[in-house]
């Protein structure tokens, strides 16, 4: 798979893989999860679109329901960092959405792909705690990322069995 070179497309490969997995889940009756698109406003000059800007900040990348009626909200992140996911890649409005979703009983998490396209699961509560510690300790070493050893490897970009993992973790916990 080609590597992402621009910030605008960062995470796109993982999102496309999750969309493919979501289609499989829908066909098999395992989950119904949809991509949440960011609203853009085009800027036109002489009838042509010359630019655009974000109309409103997006929440997370995906929302839906997996087997047994488990509601989920999650985001996808890709990183080239050798140690883990930099917390700077998670935006404040995304953390706020994860908090709000958690407060109404949704299962929240982040899927993170490394440079080799291994996919890791980050519990949403762990991400919120790490983010809060990072905010409280700005400028101090050791608080700026979620290390890979604090994540659970669940697959690779060719097969991302996140719904099965959620069901096992929720039903059998």
For this entry, give a set of tags.
10 strands; 30% helix; two-stranded antiparallel ribbon; Trna Endonuclease, Chain: A, domain 1; alpha+beta; disordered N terminus; single chain
Explain this structure.
It contains 4 helices and 10 strands. It is of the alpha+beta class and 173 residues long. It has a single domain, classed as Trna Endonuclease, Chain: A, domain 1, CATH 3.40.1350. Strands 1-4-5-7-8-10 form a 6-stranded mixed beta sheet. Strands 2-3 form a two-stranded antiparallel ribbon. A two-stranded antiparallel ribbon has the order 6-9. The longest helix is centred in the N-terminal third of the chain and has 17 residues. The protein is globular. The N and C termini lie far apart (36 Å).
Topology:
Blueprint: H1 12-28, E1 31-35, E2 40-45, E3 48-54, E4 62-66, E5 70-78, E6 84-86, H2 92-103, E7 107-113, E8 118-123, H3 124-136, E9 145-147, E10 152-156, H4 162-171
Helix pairs in contact: 2-3
Please write the CATH class name.
Answer: Alpha Beta
The number of E-state strands comes to 10
Order of strands, main sheet, comes to 1-4-5-7-8-10
CATH structural architecture: 3-Layer(aba) Sandwich
Describe the sheet with the most strands: 6 strands, mixed
* Strand-residue proportion: 25-35%
CATH topology: Trna Endonuclease, Chain: A, domain 1
Low-confidence stretches: 1-6
- Broad shape: globular
State the secondary-structure class. Answer: alpha+beta
Distance between the termini: 36 Å
Total of helices: 4
Mean pLDDT across the residues is 85
Task: Please bin the fraction of helical residues.
Answer: 25-40%
Order of helices and strands: HEEEEEEHEEHEEH
Q: What is the gyration radius calculated from CA atoms? A: 17 Å
How many structural domains does the protein architecture include? Answer: 1
């Amino acid at each position: 798979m080609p590597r992402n070179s621009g910030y605008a497309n960062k995470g796109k490969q993982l999102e496309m893989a999750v969309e493919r997995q979501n289609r499989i889940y829908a066909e098999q009756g395992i989950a119904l999860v949809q991509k949440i698109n960011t609203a853009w406003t085009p800027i036109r000059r002489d009838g042509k679109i010359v630019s655009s800007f974000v109309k409103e900040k997006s929440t997370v990348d995906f929302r839906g329901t997996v087997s047994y009626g488990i509601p989920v909200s999650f985001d996808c992140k890709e990183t080239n960092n050798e140690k883990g996911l930099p917390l700077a890649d998670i935006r404040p409005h995304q953390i706020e959405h994860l908090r709000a979703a958690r407060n109404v009983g949704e299962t929240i998490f982040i899927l993170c792909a490394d440079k080799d396209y291994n996919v890791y699961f980050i519990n949403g509560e762990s991400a919120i705690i790490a983010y809060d510690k990072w905010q409280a300790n700005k400028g101090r070493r050791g608080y700026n990322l979620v290390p890979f050893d604090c994540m659970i490897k669940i697959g690779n970009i060719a097969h991302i069995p996140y719904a099965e993992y959620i069901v096992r973790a929720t039903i059998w916990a």
